[in-house]
Amino acid sequence: MKIKSLLTVLFVWVSVLSFAQDIGFQYHITLMEPGNPAKSYPLKDGGNGSLSSKDPIPVEVIQRQINNGQTIKIEVSITGKENIYYNFEELIRLETFKHEDCEFLMPGFWYHRNLRSPKEAPSFATSDSWQVREDRLSSPLTGVFDRKSGNYYTVARLDDFQTESLTTHTSGDVILSGKTSIGFTGFKNVDGTSSLVFGFPYHEAPKTYIRKLTLVSPVRAFEKLAKGETRKLTWEIRKGKASGYSDFVADTWSYVFDTYKPKPLADVHNTAEAKKLLSNFYKESFVDNYDLKYYSGVHLRTDDCISTGSAEVGFVGRVLLNAFNALEYGEEVGDESLVRNARAIFDSYLSRGFTKNGFFREFVELSRNEEPQVYSIRRQSEGVFAILNYLAYDQAKGRRHPEWESKIKQLLVNFSKLQQPDGSFPRKFNDEFKIEDESGGSTPSATVPLTMAYSYFGNKRYLESARKSAAYLEREIISKADYFSSTLDANCEDKEASLYASTAMYYLAFVTSGKERARYIDLCAQAAYFCLSWYYTWDVPFAQGQMLGDVGFKSRGWGNVSVENNHVDVFIFEFATVLEWLANQKNEQRFSQFSDVIKSSMLQLMPREGHKFNIAKVGYYPEVVQHTNWDYGKNGKGFYNDIFAPGWTVASLWQMLSPERVEEFFARKKN
Fold this sequence. Notes:
single chain; three-stranded antiparallel beta sheet; 32 strands
């Protein structure tokens, strides 16, 4: 036993030594006197934890390292010898990591090298070194993965995040108006070697991203430290090994979940309360003065929520899914007006909602008689999804709709014409089947209704088409961890591509068995980890006067949208249910625990009387929730954009609040 214990101690000591030899530390502190240029001072480790400058500086910096073999905890204390304004930076050079061999992770913001993103957004197309403020990230962490060795390093901030302050400028050297908890993190190419860089307060470089496709000059913040005052900061460096980028992302998500331990919010609405509030959207948004009847759910102003002339089948409007929600709920609670209006929507789309070749008229601006002639596999798929739910629901009650069935069968014929030899579906096309955007990133949105159509109609052609699309997803999307271009208002890495991929495999698992089903479960989990990396495990702080902070908003459980659209939202639909199911299939309770966080957190901004959260009408759930120094066009951090689309937010939350739907759909007998 003594020999075994000695060998264990020796192994741990060798691991610690190896970890320490792999990395090198560099330190800088930058000081600024108001009205004068900032000056940066390199710091050296004096051997006793003191980080000192060769020039006299009015600040004391002490660092303590706690090495646990696979992690090094770094504790930094900064004390002012007189009143100072400072910015501290630490760099860890990964001596064995060639930058050209590495890929990077800043959860919810940066994947691989962000090469799917345009040069107007953060991407390797602009620079191979990036550092950003922590509240841009779903977890305040940066990771570097070496493709050749499979080794990776991460650095995570471990402090409490309680405060934020305002600044007068978005670029340059800025002095904070008060205390902040927000630092920065990122990666750098240092003479061909990858390095982790982090510090406090925030410093974004080489650019700062202030709104959609708008990069401006870098920003560096300075916090005031009074004479004798000390700021304590903590980070953790972690080393690991992964079989590939997906494994790296999955391992990192498990680590951040265990590190930040997000808990569900207390005192949130139960399902009945939430649906009652959301149902007001169906009552107030119904528009019946055009040939197409619809719920007005896109291009609304937050300050009045007055209905517009825009009717949209999928993506952000979700008219048909909302009609199904209203029908089901109206019958459940005995509200005839909800039922009547929902059926009016279905009837109007049945008679006037299709193009000459059988596609949904997916977006129509009725007030101006404008209608784009380019269609998308995503909106078309979301329309089929809604109608199949409607048909199965009514069929279970003894009501049949043969005309609708005929329309959907024709649309599925169109799908077969669009599906490419590799199994993918083009992102955009016209009514003559001419492909306008061949990208396959939206393919999983089609897999879902194809699987449902097989179950409803019993036609194996639909299942074969779904299987073919799943093979494409496995080969080109999931195995390469390349989730992109699912959202229609951006063309980049995005959350919804991984969410749809995971959901697609979940649906396929209901109609398959044996080894095939087991493979779909594995793929579902792999995509789910990637999707989870977009969701916040921590609560970003807000300054007083930023509405979201003033009302007590917690960001945990909300997902960032994409590299281009750097805000959080409630896009969830079935994903919380998928996580619950995966928890049992894969014996991974983190999934169900985080599902509980999502389901509680996403209801916290529910507009209701006395608690409108800057939304004019009850139940019109907010969309563009701006949680970091970025805006979609108006207002910035702590507020919403002034234009929003409650059509999809209501539909998303309603689907989350109806976890039994999917299993019930597949449990019904085929025709």
